[in-house]
Amino acid sequence: MIKTGVVGACGKMGQEVVKLVLNSPDLELVLAVDKFKTGEKIKDNVIIKDDLLNSINEAKPDIVVDFTQPSVIFENIKIYQKTKTKAVIGTTGLSSEQIDEIKKMSKENNTGIIIAPNFSIGAILMMQFARQASKYFSNAEIIEYHHNQKKDAPSGTSIKTAQLMISENSNFKEGNCAEIETIKGSRGGNFIENNKGNIQIHSVRMPGFVASQEVIFGSDGQILKIHHDTINRECYMSGVKLAIDHLYKNNNFIYGLENIL
């Protein structure tokens, strides 16, 4: 049995992870942390608590799954590393510099961690298809759609997609004219990393959406669109389970679920 903790257990994603753990014969829920519903019982020996460090020291989970908030995730990861607790991170909003630091901490502490901007197998394939297409198109933009309670923009999935794309093509604005925005931000955010990229990312926040993304490629005489829709959050759970199983048997740093498919 894999002793599993869920951090952010009362959030929409956290609730799905709790269901996954309770319904998986090889997983045992030993810890639930959230700032809401503190003191409520999830199962006989698991009560929701709000102190992450003390909860880990008491329950001693093999792995924690974290779906919290961008404002706290980096500090949470420091706690996981300090206590040598393996962690699957679904919370987005980490900067490239923070991810580099986490990779360093993981190696120094010999404590595995998986950071995945998206756990949907379809979304992972969408990102891989976009990477492959980037070799053949001179221009591309990304539009990502999420529910209006998502706090960070652009999404971690769109950033990861852009990173994969620029690994194949360093400039996606070939032939563009000089632009003037009469309304600031109307062209979205221009993603550049290590002086490469030039991919406009547009973030839509609207009730009714769960998560969707479209990558649009263009060249003379043609347009290619790669689109993925998340209908409900259950689709993420197979990826979460895959990450838990991998991390239980391994002890390395991984950024992106595609690295273990």
Describe the secondary-structure layout.
Layout: E1 2-7, H1 12-23, E2 27-33, E3 41-43, E4 46-47, H2 52-59, E5 63-66, H3 73-82, E6 86-89, H4 96-109, E7 113-115, H5 121-133, E8 139-146, H6 156-166, E9 189-193, E10 196-205, E11 211-219, E12 222-230, H7 237-249, E13 253-255
Parallel strand pairs: 1-2, 1-5, 5-6, 6-7, 7-13, 8-10
Antiparallel strand pairs: 3-4, 8-11, 9-10, 11-12
Describe this structure in words.
By secondary structure, the protein is of the alpha/beta class. The protein has two domains: 2-115 and 234-260, NAD(P)-binding Rossmann-like Domain (Rossmann fold, 3-Layer(aba) Sandwich); 121-230, Dihydrodipicolinate Reductase, domain 2 (2-Layer Sandwich), CATH 3.30.360. 31% of the residues lie in helices and 28% in strands. The protein has helices at residues 12-23, 52-59, 73-82, 96-109, 121-133, 156-166, 237-249, and strands at 2-7, 27-33, 41-43, 46-47, 63-66, 86-89, 113-115, 139-146, 189-193, 196-205, 211-219, 222-230, 253-255. It has a six-stranded parallel sheet, sandwiched between helices. Strands 9-10-8-11-12 form a five-stranded mixed sheet. Strands 3-4 form a two-stranded antiparallel sheet. Helix 3 (73-82) packs parallel to helix 4 (96-109). 41% of the residues are buried.
